[in-house]
Amino acid sequence: MAFFSSSKNKTALLRLQYAARVAAALWLLAVAIVLGHALTKSGAVLVSDMRALVPESAQSESANALLAISDKASRAVYVLAAHPEKTEMRKIASSIRSATENSALKPLNLTNASPASLAASLAPWSENFLTASDAKWLQEASDRAILNRALRRLARPGTGLLSFSTDPLGLFENWLNNHPEFSRFTLDGDQIAVADGGTLWNIFAFENTAGSASDIAENNVTKTIGRIRAEVGAIPGAQLLAGGVSLIAEQTKVRAQEEASLIGLISLITILAIAWGFFRGVTVMFVMLGTLATATAAGFATVVGVYGSIHLLTFVFGATLSGICADYVLHWFTFRKRGATAEQSFTYLFRPLSVSFASTLLAFCLMAFMPVPSVRQMALFCCAGLATSFLIVFGLLPLVPMRSRAAKPIAGALRAVRPLGPKGAVVLALAAIVLSAAAFALHGTQKELGLLINADKALLAEQARIARLVSPVTPGQFIVLKAEGEKELLEREAALTARLEELRQKGTLSAFRSLSSWLPSVSEQESAYKRVHAANERAVRILSEHLSEMIEHRDSKGFAPLTPSVLPKTLQETVLAREIARAPSGTTYAVTSFSDLTPEALSELAKTAESIPGASLTNLTGDISDELTRCKETIQMLLVLILAVLAGYFAMLYRRGWWRLWLPCALTVACTQALLALCGIPWSLFSVLPLVLLTGLSVDYAVLAENDPDNPWVWDSLLLAGSTTIASFGLLAFSSTPALSAFGMTIALGIVLAWGLTLMLRKD
């Protein structure tokens, strides 16, 4: 096609231009209305909770309650401090409290409730509880032993947790004081502490009220911990540990933001330098950035309008996949720079860019039929953004004035590279297949969540040590138990706890929190009641005879089991807040939580849950990871489908020359993955998702080159588009965050391959 070829039908061209302007105006008006509604609607529009990626089918009826428990656990931040001198330790404690006083960290009681308040709440059921050691003692206790224990209890200063008449032998008090909720800690003055060898660590627990690991919010927890480290570090002999899921998440977020900002600044400077060198001005770049911003806003508004909200992951990757929108602007202004009028540029570019637009739109539409919700959102986002960019280029950019001047193409020398014929293309394809097959054999995979973490190794080591000392609840893994009635629920929970205790004794589990530690089965409570009640009656009788006066035993008036339905409010809202989940339907679930789980432990827990009727292992972290992996696998299959559809589409449009357009796309996808494997970069969502963008860019390059392969301005346009794409996304390869690095490396390698393959496989 001649560069200045005119339309045979001038009227048809004018009508087409007018239709493009009207369509662009109406589309942008609709986007503005939907965007305005989205920004003013109540409730969260941009969702950052990673757990929102868990498909609804994978969640049980108790999902909302479990998410609340998980969120509570993920907000916990721990600071452990130690010093051999008591006076210095008090200074450290004062510094920690002072540093957190006006921060987002609010004090969190590790034991949730005091023994005294729990004893008062459990007093009506005090005879339902008995330790194993006391049960054995009662079997062998003589009257003299009973009398001596009762006398010691009576002569002790104070009343104890319960009055003597209610607990004459102190059996209930002994059970409560030896409960794991209290026995795992000790007191160092008025501060809860835990011993580790010869070091006594004072524990300061906080709740991050500004945000959590899943709800990434702007907070200053890292700065607060930094101030604490500085103040405590100035005290000779002081030791300090700090950790928590939200602390690690915030540090990862801050690092990623700092890197993205620095790399983004370098990218912007590079792009502006390219624009200045090519166009001798930056107006084009600002038009391009404005088009990208409008396309991103259109994608955002469309997804929110259809789904009611948009996930942060969808927004970030959707905006990235819309990167092809910038190329349309660059192609337009490159030909305007040559001296073409707006009408001539419209005539020349409309057909090839329409083919490119339709091809890329078809690929994104195929994504919309995938069963993964996040992929469908990305597809809708990209389709809306792509349509916006296309309409802006052909509807609005012809109205933008540009001073044309004669200029020489900078990529004209590339035409000296001879294109490969059909035989050369076959050899190239076979070589690429062999290389890809060899690389794929070495290619590994990696879980996506691990690629998102970029915290200090020292902080991760401290987190591991805190997990061993404090045993905080893991926020993402639970065993959920349900039954027809409360009696059956407690019986099943007791059986589950017995199995878990076996795993703990074997060393598979480090610690767990279960409902049965507070609410034994009804049969166990009844058995304990019979023995404790008889022992208390016996003690009162023996003591009355010894003292020759009547000692009162406050009878509990018969056995009454303690079940979730009659649980005192003090217990429901404190120590059992994580052990009981209530679904909206009113169903009560027993929730067993764990600390510091290993993959081996998760495997054993899954088997244990299968052996208990009504039990199921809920692994929120695993569900999120599996969903991201499923998304990756879906996109891999989608790429194959896209390439197959593109082959048919190009064959229909270009007949026997279809392979010159299709082969660069297919080889770019295959060879990029092969080179990633050779570079040691494992397959992940962050290295597979950019391949969709690369497919669209490859189509764009191939179609434009096929349209007029001898025109040097075509290669200028492609060189400029590839350079700005590498500057925009490829520099992310230098990020220390593995996910960003994999994304950037994929883009950088893929663009070079797409450009080179288009050049070698062009029409001769």
Report on the structure:
The chain is an alpha+beta fold and 764 residues long. It is 61% helix and 8% strand. It has 28 helices and 13 strands. Strands 2, 3, 4, 5, 6 and 7 form a six-stranded antiparallel β-sheet that branches. Strand 5 and strand 6 form a beta hairpin. 44% of the residues are buried.
In brief:
The protein contains 28 helices and 13 strands. The radius of gyration is 34 Å and the shape is elongated. Helices cover 61% and strands 8% of the residues.
Tags for this entry?
28 helices; five-stranded antiparallel sheet; 13 strands; elongated; 764 residues; alpha+beta
Radius of gyration: 34 Å
Largest sheet: 6 strands, antiparallel
Q: So what's the overall shape? A: elongated
Helix content: 55-70%
List the topology elements.
Layout: H1 10-40, E1 46-47, H2 63-74, E2 76-82, H3 86-100, E3 105-107, H4 115-122, H5 132-140, H6 143-155, H7 171-177, H8 180-183, E4 186-188, E5 191-196, E6 199-208, H9 221-233, E7 239-243, H10 245-279, H11 283-307, E8 310-311, H12 312-321, H13 324-337, H14 342-367, H15 373-396, H16 422-442, H17 448-451, H18 457-470, E9 477-481, H19 486-506, E10 511-513, H20 522-547, H21 569-573, E11 580-582, E12 588-595, H22 599-611, E13 615-619, H23 620-654, H24 658-678, H25 685-688, H26 690-707, H27 712-729, H28 738-760
Parallel strand pairs: 1-8
Antiparallel strand pairs: 2-6, 2-7, 3-6, 4-5, 5-6, 9-12, 9-13, 10-12, 11-12
Helix pairs in contact: 1-11, 1-15, 3-9, 6-20, 10-27, 11-13, 11-15, 12-15, 13-14, 13-15, 13-27, 14-15, 14-23, 14-26, 16-24, 19-22, 23-24, 24-26, 24-28, 26-28, 27-28
